[in-house]
Amino acid sequence: VRTYSKSFKDSLWLSYVLLAGVAGGLVMAVSCASTVLYQVFVWLIGDPSSTQSAFHFQNSSNFAGAAMVGFITWWYHHAVLDEERVAVRTEVQRIYEYLIAGIGLAAAAGGIGVLLTALAAGLTSSTTLVGGSGSSNTLIAAGTLLIIGGPVWWIFWRRIQTATQESLVAEHGSATRRIYLFLLFGVGGLAGVVALLVGVFFFFDDVFKGNFGIATFYRARFTISILLTAFSVAGSHWMVYRQE
Fold this sequence. Notes:
Number of strands: 0
Helix content: over 70%
Radius of gyration: 21 Å
Largest sheet: none
Shape: flat
Number of helices: 10
Structural class: mainly alpha
């Protein structure tokens, strides 16, 4: 690591720092910190699987350690990139900011998806929502992802938008920005179309079997939540691109 940090900053070097160091470290930190926070919230206000704290938190130390390692990995590679920062905003800086914003958005979108799943299941009067957990645990899972991912996305997306307002031509013409917007539009649209196809299949399957009813919507709760979340993400980023 010490030797390579002083080597020539070519495309391979940047790919390692951005993908393995920044993205890999941040994904590890966000996912593991979310797991620890979820376990704490379930113990305090949710429906824990055991009344013994030692049993409930038996894996928390592993996730907490992994979250710390992920944070340190992200922080170190962030510091390495900062050493190369110049006064003029570069494409590398844009890639860094859009990469983190995308990770935060993915976590927040996951939280919204879980929340919509809980809402859809609740409207069908079901007591079991996700994976056998109670409704309180499902809402806690959604809230945890939103608490972790939401601020990460908001901070970096706001930084991106501020830079865009200061230099419209340069930012709107950036290949990184266009790839980011098109990627989220494409992935979100594809996920929404797949969810729509699955939901339509559930609909006709129950209709032809004579089982259409509230149970059909409960069966399609995951596809409904994915459909709404994916189309929201895809639509919002397509509107941003259209306005530019």
